[in-house]
Amino acid sequence: MEIQTGEGQVQIHFTTKQQQYAIPDTPYSIAANISTDELNTLVNSLLKETGFLKNVDFDFLVLGEFLRNRLGGHLKERGVSFEDTIEIEYVERFPSPEPQDCLLHDDWVSAVHTRNNWILTGCYDHSINIWTTKGKHTLTVPGHLAPVKAVSWISLNDQNGVFVSASQDQTAMIWEWNIEQNAVQCMFVCKGHERGIDSVDVSPSGKLFATGSWDTLLKIWSADLHGTEDESSSKKARTAQAQTRTPVLTLQGHREAVSGVQWINEESLLTSSWDHTLKIWNLGMEGVKSEISGNKSFFDISYSQLNGLIITASADKNLRLYDPRSNQGTVVKNTFLGHSQWIQTVCWSTTDEHLFISGSYDNHVKLWDVRSSKAPLYDLIGHEDKVHDCDWSNPKYMVSGGSDNTVRVFKSKKANQKTK
Predict the structure, then answer these.
(1) pLDDT in tens, 256-269
(2) Virtual CA dihedral for 318, 321, 324, 327, nearest 10 degrees?
């Protein structure tokens, strides 16, 4: 039977990749001004007809974007005729993250990194702190002579943790933490930068780490705790005093401060800079493989291993998405609007290719879906001052640190459901 569509009606076809929520493959004629709430009611009623009793919250994708207003308006904005059959994909809505803890520090928190059940933080009072994801403070680690701007776990098991910290004192330090004794020792002081270090990241194998500095240089270091041959032959007793470590490789190419660094794989790295460029480096070539130019200083980057895309934070209110594999890699793939001041930090989800978080000088952390560029999924409320860093390395926890001397921890209900 042919379904008539008029000016106020539109013919639609529902699809879903989540087969547990599949409904009969039938076209429907609905009011063009239908809202997402009304679509939700419709899909749930159709599900009940198949014997599915639970109510589910859905989001709706039309032309690859989440429907955020009425269907007719969405179609008109994109120049789609009401006479066309419209495919609407429905997906289970990502649940609102739950606020967990507020971790109080003595000064601004400029760096956070989570692994397993532990949170590393770096502070403007020159200290590093170790916390549990339950909010318990475990240890304060002194050692740097200036604010700590970046921290990263190198390895972590039930007995020992190894991590690296980077500071405005121009050094990076490699630390070993005996968890049972709750004692930390600095194993290596990494020297070579001539200005403060702003970013650090550990390679996928954990054998190397990279640092980006205000001296415009990218440096690669060994993360090996046992030292190189030269270091092993040193007369210094490793138990008595940390040894000095020099870089394995120095890469030059940026014209201003390197604000962000991330490994793509063991041979490639991505950097962002205040010089308005992103660079992808190849260690085998010992140089730049490709470059993306922007029109603002880049403050942070995040590369997704799941989708190969780069999200950037800049000296304006917008997040920008790039595809480095595209022939038009320098063209912004999408722009995300919602922050009201400079965006300082971004981080992709490690388990969902569509999701990322951002933190801004507007005091807000936001959770985004790449399919919804005009509004975030959720605001993660709590910070009372600028947000400096955020992390989502552990799928269960979204973590952020800021100028209000706190780390805010939000728990993903979806991650929690998956682990049950």
Answers:
(1) 999 999 999 999 99
(2) -100
